[in-house]
Each structure stands twice: as structure tokens, then as C-alpha cells.
Hints:
There is one protein chain. The protein folds into two domains: about 80 residues, no CATH class; about 60 residues, Beta Barrel (Thrombin, subunit H), CATH 2.40.10. A four-stranded mixed β-sheet has the order 1-3-4-2. The chain has a four-stranded antiparallel β-sheet with strand order 5-6-7-8, with no helix packed on it. By secondary structure, it is mainly beta. Helices cover about 5% and strands about 60% of the residues. It is globular and about 45 Å long. The two termini are about 30 Å apart.
Amino acid sequence: MLQHITEQDFIKSNALKLFSEYKTSRNFGIFTLNGNSYKLSWQSNISKPDIIQITDSIYSIGIDLNFAIIDFKSNKILLNINFFSFYYYTMLLDNYIYIVTELEIIKVNTMNFKVVEIVALPDIFKEMTVLIDKIKIYCFDDSIIEILR
Length: 149
């Protein structure tokens, strides 16, 4: 699915560009499924792109300040977001995708892949607990934010 490539291979590749922080990138890759390919680059040497399967042909990928949802069956980018704070992880819950970043939680509808809510956090994200009717978000300054499921 994700193949690491050299910077030269990235430049030469005809694959569609998913996202690239070219001035600061140190890592390069091609994300391929069903014969469709997207190239991406990222700066972090510590983190690896986080790839989540949403359906048989729809995947999300997040790393550094970037996140995208791709439909490999129709070969379309359904959502492409540049963050102001670093990507942490993605969680699928009910009919929503929760994108967790250092300072925000972004809620995306899985039916149309539109952002339905952005929750700004008062401090850096620490952890999240899923309850029956809500999600509790804990921050490093000991603040707690609750959002309805």
C-alpha cells in the first residue's frame, strides 16, 4: 500500500500529489491501491503515516500537518486537510471519523466526507475516552472537553 521512495523518484513520479511539505520533507512515498497511486511527502522521521481503512476502497492517511481521505475505486480525493497543529490519530465511531490533532478534534461524516464539527482544544491533547453518549477529551492543562457522539 505505502511504499517509501527516494526524493528523486518522488519528483519523477506521475502519480497524483496527495500532499507534500516539499521544503521540509525528509520522507517520500507512494500510496497505491487498485492500480491508483498518490504520492506524498512528510517531514517527520519519528512518525509514520497513519493509514486507516474506512471501506473496501476508501482509506484515510494522516501525518505531520496533513490528512486526506481517498476513494481508490473512483480515484478521487474526498477530503484533504492541512492542519495548524500536528496530526495524532484517527478514530472511526458510529458514522463519523474523528481526526485528533494536537489542538483540535475534527469530526467528519462518513456518508459524504464533509467536516461537520471542529472542536478547538484549550491545551494540548492528552487522551480521549469514549462513553455511551459522549466523548471526553482530556488536555495537558487538566481541562476536559465533552462532545456528543
